[in-house]
Amino acid sequence: MPFIAHDSLICPIDGLALLFKNNSLCCSSGHRYDVGKPGYANLLSVQHKRSRAPGDSKEMVHARADFLSAGFYEPIACQLADIISVQGEDELSLVDAGCGEGYYLEKIDSLIDKRLDLVGFDISKWAVQRAAKRCQGTWLVASNKRIPLADNSADIVLDMFGFPDFDSFARVLKPDGKLICVTPGDKHLIELRKIIYPTVKPTNGRQYPDFFSRDTQRTITYEIKLDRTALDNLLAMTPHLYRAPKDRLARLAKLEQISMTIDVRLDVLNPT
Ligand SMILES: C[S@@+](CC[C@H](N)C(=O)[O-])C[C@H]1O[C@@H](n2cnc3c(N)ncnc32)[C@H](O)[C@@H]1O
Prior knowledge:
Elements: E1 19-21, E2 24-26, E3 32-34, E4 41-42, H1 58-69, H2 74-85, E5 91-97, H3 103-111, E6 115-122, H4 125-132, E7 138-141, E8 154-160, H5 166-172, E9 173-184, H6 190-196, E10 212-227, H7 228-236, H8 240-243, H9 246-253, E11 257-271
Parallel strand pairs: 4-7, 5-6, 5-8, 6-7, 8-9
Antiparallel strand pairs: 1-2, 2-3, 9-11, 10-11
The structure holds S-adenosylmethionine.
Residues 55-56, 64, 98-100, 103, 122-124, 127, 143-145, 160-163 line the site of S-adenosylmethionine.
């Protein structure tokens, strides 16, 4: 898909505006980021990387893409679309922070009758490579810690099962913008967790800093039926595969199908 250059992009090194010309994003002090054929820009500079391949691995990204494309989390996307469809203007900039392989932005865009300027970024280049093939948008390899967007430029920031940096979210949101966070509830994937962990810990709910106030909260709970392939994908897209004891994983490997509870909390927050 062709790359769309959002007009609020900034250089992750010096914070100057980035202009798109000759297939590169350039700032006035000479930093240049090429936009390759796959339609995304890598704005994660070497000095800000903590490892050679940060974020989710290629295998995790592919497993998540297969899992999500089967529609298991579609009710979550529908609730998001429902909330976003009643927000302010007919044109909104929608930023997915830690967008993974882009499922939610594409789905929300298909469900809403507004003009959405889609910006999706993730620290994993595998995720962004996959996302950029999905639909037109500003797809970036970048980190929550240094979101390459100007202050007060986003109408909505999504943090879906992500690794939030609330200071950065507050910085890029417009004063009347919204932060929407989706986090696991206590019963989320409980059947899986009961099999693979000797004791199941409560999720404890997420605490938000006081520069965000809660606007609304929804709980989304339903059941899905997973066959062996879907279960393998679910395991591979989460850290459970690496965290769970081997003997417990072996128990799971014997199952041909399983019913699984989806239980997530959706918080809509206002910057204060
Ligand atoms: C659990 S996955 C969720 C992906 C997607 N939001 C979804 O719900 O399908 C978390 C994602 O956050 C990304 N990530 C981890 N640390 C990040 C950071 N500091 N900045 C941006 N993305 C990050 C990972 O690469 C991964 O794609």
